[in-house]
Design a protein that fits this description.
Elements lengths: L5 H27 L13 E2 L14 E11 L8 E16 L2 H19 L11 E13 L6 E16 L2
Parallel strand pairs: 1-2
Antiparallel strand pairs: 2-3, 3-5, 4-5
Length: about 160
């Protein structure tokens, strides 16, 4: 039995990030050594669905793993196996008051995610490959508190080989 689609991809990404993020952030904190130490997101701060960040109650950063479409690779697929490419957005959101501080921290979270997810076989056996495509972000002011909510996302393409039913 193969994957069941994006839900399995999302679950594999979240499990991998939760398992590897603490050690990766410890390594990055040592590398930068500039007072902007990062703590790993709590397990309750990972989401695979869209929430309103202004009403979100969680430990920060929040991590969203979102569906950005899928496409079958017709050249690689056959009667037994369907090769799929899933677009995945991994979006980190931080809350704070200093935009420069938030930007630097978010860049490091994105770097950590890229380094964790693009290692060969990082998502095996669920997924066969994960490549980083691009990133981007935005900044908003929370009308209730005046705090900044800033995000930085990374888009990945995750390839799977799914058994045909």
């Amino acid at each position: 039995m193969g994957l069941t689609g994006f839900d399995a991809v999302s679950a594999a990404i979240i499990a991998k990030l939760q398992a590897d993020m603490p050690a990766k952030l410890t390594a990055l904190n040592s590398e930068y050594d500039d007072g902007l130490a990062l703590a790993a997101p709590s397990a309750a701060s990972y989401f695979d669905y869209v929430l309103d960040p202004f009403t979100l109650r969680c430990d920060w950063p929040a991590v969203f793993v979102l569906d950005d479409g899928d496409e079958e690779d017709a050249e690689q697929s056959n009667f037994e196996t369907r090769v799929m490419h899933y677009g995945v957005i991994v979006d980190f959101i931080l809350r704070g008051t200093d935009p420069a501080d938030l930007t630097h921290r978010l860049r490091r979270f994105r770097r950590a995610a890229v380094e964790i997810l693009t290692v060969r076989h990082a998502l095996a056996p669920a997924c066969t490959n994960c490549t980083y495509q691009r990133g981007g972000g935005a900044q908003f002011t929370d009308p209730a508190s005046g705090d900044l909510l800033q995000d930085l996302a990374a888009r990945f393409v995750v390839t799977t080989a799914e058994a045909m039913p």
